[in-house]
Specification:
eight-stranded antiparallel β-sheet; alpha+beta; 2 domains; five-stranded antiparallel β-sheet; 13 strands
């Protein structure tokens, strides 16, 4: 008998045994994860194309000891939500289970469940504000082992301020990372010297993991002169406006999307910059706004209408006198300052 076939057989047996042992190796369980009963997962993962199953919501709140803040199915689950999907987020060949669930459609919880050692665990949970809009959960089928998933959320809404955006996540090595916030729209009509309307759209860039974002913006006058009253109208619809496209490149070491604006040989004052983008949804500092948009401001003062020139000159005089750092009044919600700080932590990373 030849020794070669015998050695091949022995090698095959040993390889089979090693694979079997490796497949049964237990995965480490994080103490912060919450074990979820198989019965709940089975019921939650069965398609139910009807009103949300309020029994599931009740059971989940008990399992994770969720502080509902007084939320309950007082209206027979009238505003309850339970949207879910299965997708392999980290390329391990097994689907994770994602869902948006809660008693109120305006503030559901984003939950990520992952299977370990034949059991399911809640590895991530975050409450998302939607301002009574239908909660939406997206997954980008981009060219990456670790798929990007994202939700649309509301940052602030009242009579004079509206801010919405998208938050992007990745699941990497069993950890969920917040990778980026992109402003979808911001509108502030009064309560400050210069108001703004910003819109954006985005798309993933073909065969990469990066994002291309298109911004359009319009800064218009609000509370400029001492005699101006609330929601003052100046007969001018725009002082500074423009648009542009920038990239957000994924940094795998930091697990963040980073703003990337390549240098141009034919730069103009209308080009988008990091400083300009930092002014979107940031109502706290007019001096930073002037610094970022100085070139466009100078152009309008040279070529704008008489009313535009008058408004901008008065506005600049306030900035020079250090009076343009607007102090919120009673009709300007203080909570917005906290939200702005939270948003800036994500927008400019």
């Amino acid at each position: 008998m030849s020794r070669l076939p015998f050695l091949i057989i022995i090698f095959s047996v040993l390889f089979s045994i090693s694979c079997h042992i490796g497949s049964n190796k237990s995965e480490a369980i994080n103490a912060k994860w919450k074990k979820i009963p198989d019965s709940w997962i089975k019921r939650a993962t069965q398609p139910a194309y009807q009103k949300p199953d309020t029994v599931l919501l009740h059971e989940f709140a008990k399992i994770v000891k969720l502080d509902t803040g007084g939320e309950s199915p007082s209206d027979s689950g009238k505003y309850a939500v339970f949207n879910s999907l299965h997708v392999d987020l980290d390329g391990d060949g097994k689907d994770e289970f994602l869902c948006l669930q809660g008693w109120n459609v305006d503030s559901p919880y984003l939950c990520v469940f992952k299977q370990f050692n034949d059991g399911w665990y809640l590895i991530y949970i975050e409450q998302i504000e939607t301002f009574f809009k239908s909660p939406a959960l997206y997954v980008a089928n981009n060219y990456s082992k670790n798929k990007t998933f994202y939700v649309r959320q509301s940052y602030e809404h009242d009579a004079d301020i509206a801010m919405d955006g998208y938050r992007f996540y990745k699941l990497i090595d069993n950890n969920v990372y917040k990778c980026l916030d992109i402003l979808d729209g911001a509108y502030a009509s009064s309560g400050r010297h210069i108001a703004q309307a910003v819109k954006s759209s985005f798309e993933f860039k073909g065969d990469s993991d990066d994002l291309a974002v298109f911004y359009s913006y319009n800064f218009f006058p609000s509370y400029v002169f001492e005699s101006d009253y609330y929601s003052s109208i100046h007969g001018v619809s725009s002082l500074i406006e423009g648009q542009g496209i920038v990239d957000y490149v994924y940094n795998s070491k930091e697990h963040k999307y980073k703003l990337n604006i390549p240098p141009k040989s034919d730069k103009t004052v209308n080009d988008l910059t990091a400083d300009k983008i930092s002014c979107f949804a940031n109502f706290a500092s007019d001096s930073l706004f002037v610094k970022a948009y100085q070139g466009q401001i100078d152009d309008v003062i040279k070529t704008g209408t008489p009313q535009q020139k008058k408004l901008l000159r008065e506005y600049l005089s306030l900035v020079n006198k250090d009076k343009a750092i607007y102090e919120p009044k009673t009709y300007f919600p203080g909570r917005i300052q906290v939200i702005i700080r939270q948003m800036k932590e994500h927008f400019m990373e």
